[in-house]
Amino acid sequence: MANQTLGLEPQLYEYLLSVSLREPEILTQLRQETAQHPMGGMQIAPEQGQFMALLVQLIGAKKTLEVGVFTGYSSLVVALALPPEGKIIACDVSDEFTAIARRYWQQAGVANKIDLHIAPAIETLDQLLAAGEAETFDFAFIDADKSSYDSYYERSLQLVRPGGLIAIDNVLWSGRVADPKVQDNRTTKIRALNEKLHQDQRINLSLVPIADGLTLAHKK
Ligand code: CA
Questions:
Q1: Which helix (H) or strand (E) holds 219?
Q2: Which domains does the chain have, with CATH numbers?
Q3: pLDDT tens digits for 95-138?
Q4: pTM (2 decimals)?
């Protein structure tokens, strides 16, 4: 997977960052620490983080959902963009990766905004629905195991309010979705969701070719 915008020559990508990236020092530190990790490629690109922060501010989000925390870059960038009373319900299965996330949330002073649930995300999302939290979220970011993407999307669509936004990561999957020879489980699941969303009349749609591809689904 790509952790910078696909298809830009390095010189142009560096230019994009040089004239637009406003990355707080704490996020730079987290990105550099995560880059040392063997799975560091799972981290979102900084320009994508900044874009998501802008989206959260544009829709005036106060309550958000995150499916897939990893080391916490996306949750931290969203938490910093939320108002003081803002809240993120964050889902992940890894204590190891989220220990890094927690350390940075605390250091940035936003740990109080983030409720981390260590459990399969489908269980957490189903608990939220059972607790009557449908249509109470303003924003959701889906970036976890690709084989369950459709399940995460369907639950998130119930949990966000009309006018709320769902952002789905890695929908261009380093280009593999466009190569019919690639038929592994994760690629076919992403491809199927992309095709489904194209026809999904419950949402307004844009697939933004930032980073590894970010689909925006705006609930009608
Ligand atoms: Ca991702």
A1: strand 214-219
A2: 10-219 (3.40.50.150)
A3: 999 999 999 999 999 999 999 999 999 999 999 999 999 999 99
A4: 0.97
